């Protein structure tokens, strides 16, 4: 499942516009058409030189915008490209008026990030598929996993999978400090005899990387005849080294040791 690239919107002096990063905390306006709905909402449509009127209509449709419900407000582009883009705009809105395009210079931007469900769908898919490669008890087609499959495919409300999930795993640095020559991604799953299957993923465990940790619900399973007759758990570490090994490899996969901490009531994954 691919995710679309992030769209960065800046509140410029002319209103909200799409920008792209060209340096540390430095952005420039991209080529775009700014449109306004009848209710006064503003939208920005990314343009490129190979576009046609039909591709502009498809872009409107993908964003759920009816062309008759909006009016073109202004173009953001260099003057030499303005005639081409104005022709495209008139294919969709024949009565559109020409105006001087807004140039796309460098603009100061205060960064904010909005994480949408593509991010959470990718995380859930990673953990769910990992679980299916480890467990011999389920195939993933069971009705208990209908909700997680639907969210992965179509998106929706992420709360049932990510909110108030019991913490069952934790990564611990064996030496008491973060390693300096590598970082790792950890993924783990706890499968009970009956009840919620809980997944865990920890991205970028290591030096100079902020911890990104998620516990997720995969679904509830009912009691069946299972051997061995006890909860199962699996964990793998995907380690990436800054310095190549003897054969030029920079990574390795291993099963890290797991210890149960009775005081915390969680399983500790050792990062050695």
What best-fitting shape do the alpha-carbon axes yield? elongated
End-to-end gap: 32 Å
Structural classification: alpha+beta
Overall tally of domains: 2
**H/E series, N to C?**
EEEEEHEHEHHHEEEEEEEE
**What's the total count of β strands?**
15
The percentage of residues in β strands lies in 35-45%
Q: Strand count, sense and closure of the main sheet?
A: 5 strands, antiparallel
Measured as a percent range, the helix fraction is: 10-25%
Q: Report the radius of gyration as a whole number of Å.
A: 25 Å
Short description:
It is built from five helices and 15 strands.
Q: What would you note in describing this structure?
A:
This protein is of the alpha+beta class. The protein folds into two domains: 101 residues, no CATH class; 155 residues, no CATH class. It contains five helices and 15 strands. The chain is elongated. The model has no long low-confidence stretch (mean pLDDT 82).
């Amino acid at each position: 499942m691919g995710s679309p690239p992030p769209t960065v919107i800046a509140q410029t002096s002319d209103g909200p516009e799409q920008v792209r990063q060209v340096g540390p905390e430095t952005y420039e306006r991209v080529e775009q058409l700014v449109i306004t709905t009848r209710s006064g909402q503003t939208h920005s449509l990314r343009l490129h030189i190979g576009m046609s009127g039909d591709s502009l209509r498809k872009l409107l449709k993908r964003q759920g915008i009816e062309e008759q419900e909006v009016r073109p407000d202004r173009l953001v582009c260099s003057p030499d490209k303005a005639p081409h883009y104005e022709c495209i705009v008139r294919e969709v809105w024949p009565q559109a008026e020409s105006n001087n395009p807004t140039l796309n210079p460098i603009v100061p931007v205060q960064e904010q990030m909005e994480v949408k469900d593509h991010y959470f769908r990718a995380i859930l898919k990673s953990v769910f598929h990992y679980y299916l490669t480890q467990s011999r008890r389920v195939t993933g087609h069971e009705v208990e996993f209908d909700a997680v499959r639907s969210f992965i495919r179509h998106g929706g409300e992420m709360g049932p999978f990510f909110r108030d999930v019991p913490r069952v795993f934790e990564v611990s640095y064996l030496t008491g400090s973060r390693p300096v020559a590598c970082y790792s991604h950890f993924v783990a799953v706890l499968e009970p005899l009956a009840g919620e299957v809980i997944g865990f993923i920890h991205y970028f465990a290591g030096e100079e990387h902020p911890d990104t940790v998620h516990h997720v619900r995969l679904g509830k399973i009912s009691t069946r005849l299972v051997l061995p007759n006890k909860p199962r758990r699996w964990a793998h570490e995907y380690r990436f080294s800054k310095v190549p090994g003897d054969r030029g490899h920079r990574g390795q996969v291993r099963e890290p040791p797991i210890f149960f901490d009775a005081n915390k009531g969680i399983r500790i994954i050792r990062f050695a």
